[in-house]
UniProtKB/TrEMBL annotation, chains A, B, C, D:
Name assigned to this protein: Heme-binding protein
InterPro entries in the cross-refs: GlcG_carb_metab_protein, PduO/GlcC-like, PduO/GlcC-like_sf
Gene3D superfamilies: Haem-degrading domain (3.30.450.150)
Species for this entry: Botrimarina hoheduenensis
Any Pfam family matching the protein: HbpS-like
Length: 137, 137, 137, 137
């Protein structure tokens, strides 16, 4: 029996469903990606008409959040010109360091995956990502 | 006004759900990707413990099926050494030409997207892809 | 039955012809690319002596405009250091976020493709892209 | 005044137009690319509904034909398993070595560019490429 790595598909799909629900509640069209603890894609959904460019960005946000176990926006504050992580976006095949990516934790506080949301303002992206991450217990 | 391109998220999720159901019925663990008529990812799911390497292969299969509007295995029969399409895998950033990718058509027979399945034998991959594609009316 | 995605070749060629006409009127040499609603190349022309480096840039501009359904320059205003989309150029295999890319809409206001122009100042690139997009009804 | 390299846009567009005419005459849907003497894209057109995967293949065929100044199919005969050029497709970022790419020569017999056609059988691709190349004097 092969081993899963952290988040299950059932949990990932619950996160996607909660994110879609929040996206519709605030009137946006989002691309939503969930990666497991290994940083590998587990579930993805693009709302009808959501930006095509956000297919990639949502996945990068999710990976970036797991790569460093912090919100993507927190990394972006450190990667500005003059900041300590300036240019980190060039690593790992390309990172996205503005808000919309969040680690997903289990009840014990362990990081079991991450969610990335893209398709609107970064504030809305972050709000929808929070709703998705909160759906995983 | 944003425009969707072919298959809807609802249809794509129905295809993924039907593919998962078939995968479980035959005792496999699959990665399943659905692209729209533009070849862009619309829905994705990886069953718990399914091969990590199939995350990429399932997506390439789906794109390959849409790129040429035929089953991926049909292309593979033409791309063998000595065949008319030998080496076609070098195009489009890498193609997969063994079975598991199928166009998805609407009731009028138009191609509105494609599904790619990877995680088991190519026969099983094809069987699961068929179940997914058949779920879209 | 193959399906087209948005803009037709006839419309795309009309956009290219109008862009070339404008380019000649203002004394520039341009590369001009048109993508369909799926972000895939539909028509392309390079005026004699236009920059070789703009072959790629014009295509990326067209895709970028369709990826986010807005002018490329509007994205560039958001992606400056300190801006909300700082670093977005690292996604989607590389974006171009200065002016010269525009969505192409049909009479109903739906985005059916995009045009990207490169070869002169970004102001001229934008002017020529506008002429191209306006030629599609 | 910047220099053009071989084929002019006017000649390249004539080649594309002749190729489209032939494609329609034989009932196919083609992607057609023309590169200049430097191997750089000069003109491109995709007939409505033509394979998306052929956007890339037509361009690679045109480049491959210019890279070696011979029909792509001639290279393919040398690159089969056991042949002297086995594996050449791995070079130059990926080559296509089945028919459909042809050098374009001027009246003096000099190679001034190349055409690549993809979208049907390799025999049809070659036929349409020949019609395109013949339109350039």
């Amino acid at each position: 029996m092969p081993s899963a790595v952290g988040i299950t598909l059932k949990q990932a799909q619950a996160a996607v469903a909660a994110a879609i629900e929040k996206s519709q509640a605030i009137g946006t069209l989002m691309d939503i990606a969930v990666v497991d603890a290994g940083g590998n894609l587990t579930a993805f959904a693009r709302e009808d008409g959501a930006w095509q460019g956000s297919i990639d960005i949502s996945q990068i946000k999710a990976r970036t959040a797991r790569y460093f176990d912090m919100p993507t926006g927190a990394i972006g504050q450190l990667s500005q010109p003059g900041g300590p992580l300036f240019g980190i976006e060039h690593s790992n095949g390309g990172l996205i360091t503005f808000p919309g990516g969040l680690p997903i934790k289990n009840a014990a506080g362990e990081v079991i995956g991450a969610i990335g949301v893209s398709g609107s303002s970064v504030e809305n992206d972050h709000t929808v990502a929070e709703a998705g991450a909160a759906a995983v217990k």
